What does this fold into?
Amino acid sequence: MVSLRTAAIEVLEENRMAGFTRPARGLYPHQWSWDSGFIAIGLRRIAPARARDELLTLLRGQWRDGRIPQIVYTAGADDRYQPGADFWGDAGRELGAAAATAGFVQPPIHGIAALLVARADPEHAPAFLERVYPALAAWHDYLSERRARDGALAEIVHPWESGTDNTPLWDAALERIPRDAATEIRRPDLQHADAGERPGRKDYERYFWIAEHYRDRGCRDDDALPFRMVDPAFNALWALSEHALARIAALLGRPVAAHEERAERIAAALDELFLDALGCYTAYDAIAGVLVERATASGLVPLVLPGLGRAERLVTTLTGPRFLDGARLVPSYDRTAADHLPGQYWRGPAWFNVNWMLATGLRDAGRGDVASGLERAMVEAAAAGDFPEYVDPVTLAPHGTRRFGWTSALVLDALAGGTSFREALA
Ligand code: 9WN
It folds into this structure.
C-alpha cells in the first residue's frame, strides 16, 4: 500500500499541466486563481521549483489593470467547463493578459503563497520574489483602487469571486438578480459531480446573468454593478497577503510602509463586519446596505490575521455548536441553521482549504490542540475518500469530485507539520 504522502503526490502529478496544476481531471480543466495559491503552498513541501512555476504561470493571465483572473483557460477545453474562454472573448487579451482568462477574480491568497514558497527555498527566493513582487503589488492596487472605492474593504462582484460560490451569504443579494441570462446553460459540471452536491439551476441562471452584465460592460467596476458584496474571508486574505507583501518588500530592500498601512487599514475595517449575535464576521451587502445574518466559515477566516483582537471570541465560536462541537471538521455553514446541508457544496460540507486556513490560524493563536485535531481529520478524510473536494463535517463522507488538487496539496502540508503564518511573516 502506498503512503498517503505518495498518493497525494500522485494526484498532483496526474493533474499536472503545462506550468500549473488543474484542480481536478474532469470537473475543472483550467487553472484557477486561488486553487493555484493553495496548490503552490502544498507543492513547496515536495517541489519548490514547481511551486514557483504554479504562481508564475498564473501571473501570465494578469490584466494590465492589475487583476489576477479567476480562471486562466486551457485551450480547447471549452466544451468541458462553462463558462469557457469563448464566453469572455478577447476582453483579457485586449487588456494585456498573455492568455485567455475570465474577467472575474478570486480571493487574494497569492501574496502569502508567494512568501511561503520563497521561504521554502531561500537560494531561489530573491530571483523569484523580484519577478512576482511587482505583479502582486499591482494586484493589490487593483483591489484598492477598483474594488475598495468606498473604504478599506474590497467588494466582490460575483459569487464566483468569493470561491465559496453558493454560500448562504449571497442568497438575499441573488434574489434581486434576474434569471433570464442569454447564455445557453449546459452544465458540463454535472457529468462529474452529483447534481444535489452542486449549485442549482436557479443559481446558474443568476450567475450567468451577472457574468454577462459584467462582460458586456467591459468588466468595469462601477456603481451600476448588480451584485456588490464585502466578503470577510476575501478581505482577511487580502490583509494577510498585504502583510506578506510588506515582508517580501523588506526582503527585496524596498519600502514596506504602504503595505503595512494598508494591511492594518483592512484589518481595522474588518471590525465593521463582526456580528456579535453570531460571534463571527459576516458579509456586507453594499447595495442593500445591510450585514448578512448568517454564520459561515468565511466569517471565521479572519483568524488567519496575526494579532487579531477578536481571535479568542472566534475560537469560541469555531469550537462551539455552530461549527466544530459535534463535528470533526469545520463546516462551511452553521450546523445549527435549519437550512444547513452537510453534502451540498458551500452550504454545509467541510472544505480542506478552509480547514487548513483555520488550523493555521488556530495554531498561531495558541490553539495547537484544536489545529492538530483538524489536521488529523483532514488526513483521515483524504485517505478514506480519495482526496475529495469536500466532505460531511461530522462523518467525513466524501462529496464533490475526487483526486482534488488543493485537498492533496494541503494534506501534504499537514503531513509535513503544517504552516505558521506568524513564522512566515517574522
Ligand atoms: C467556479 C476550482 C473552483 C474553486 C472554487 C469552487 C469551484 C467553480 C465552479 O471550483 O468553483 O469558480 O465551477 O463551481 O467553488 O472555490 O476555486 O476548484
User: Anything to note?
Assistant: The chain has a mean pLDDT of 97. The pocket of 9WN is lined by residues 23, 28, 32, 34-35, 70, 160, 163, 165, 189 (CB under 6 Å). Strands lie at 31-32, 71-72, 229-230, 274-275, 280-281, 284-285, 290-291, 350-351, 390-391, 398-399.
